[in-house]
Amino acid sequence: MARRKLAGLRVLVTGASQGIGRALVAEAAKRGAKVLAAARSAELLGYLATEVRGAGGTIETVVADVTSPEGRQAMVDAATRHFGGLDVLVNNAGIGATGHFMDSDPGVLRQIFETNFFGLTETTRVFLPLLKQGTTPAIVNISSVVGKRALPARSLYSSSKFAVAGFSEAIRAELAKDGIDVLVVSPGLTQTNFSQNMLEQKAKLQLDHLRGMTSEQVAAATLRALERGTVDVTLTLQGKLLVLVNRFFPWFVDWKAKKTVRGLFADEIAAREAARAAAE
After folding, report:
1. What's the average pLDDT block by block, 10 residues per block, for the chain (280 residues)?
2. Rounded distance between C-alpha atoms, residue 269 and residue 273, angstroms
3. Which of 85, 116, 217, 227 is 20 to 30 A from 199, alpha carbon to alpha carbon?
């Protein structure tokens, strides 16, 4: 993996209007990168552009949805028109949902994969010709700790991020011949409005995102990994601990997860056992 300086590099960030994406744009511009910010909201992109330019940064924006061929082509056209190409693609756009699989709407799983996986893979596909011609080119895929160890009530989101991890590992080897690095960054709990934008929130087990890292901290860690050429980064102490324990003691994580779920559904379990006893 190559070390690189961000100053002067042409960087595209998807999902750039809020949260981690917005922080990535601001921090990359602060470090001297030429940033193309992509998102669905023209209004939020306008606010971001004003802020970055006010701080002396270089930014262009493009309204685009990563799930549509037209949106992906609009990003390619914008990168070519404004910067003459691209050096770093940051696949950050993502959506989520919580709740148990059996209670979820089948359409929600497909929608999550459409953005988190297919949007990411197809955005990567259309930018490969530009990246092959780039300076110290890299693809940064923003994943999640639950893309390394799935947790109950996060099956839909976790499965999409596991898919991202598998895709990233495969193309990392494939693109080595083209000099394109592939990095995966897996944040843990992050203080964003991601939870408010979820497609479904049906989980009894709630996670306190306010206890997590800030978007700015995630952005700084991501860009630091990009500069150093670090292949895989897991963020937050809790996230690193979860991955570490799961590596050596996966049975313990399974036991803990099952125990937590049984505790949350103790009344339901007791009612079912009472019904069985009465039937006997």
Report:
1. 92 96 97 98 97 98 98 98 98 90 90 97 98 98 94 92 97 97 91 53 52 87 96 92 92 89 80 77
2. 6
3. 217
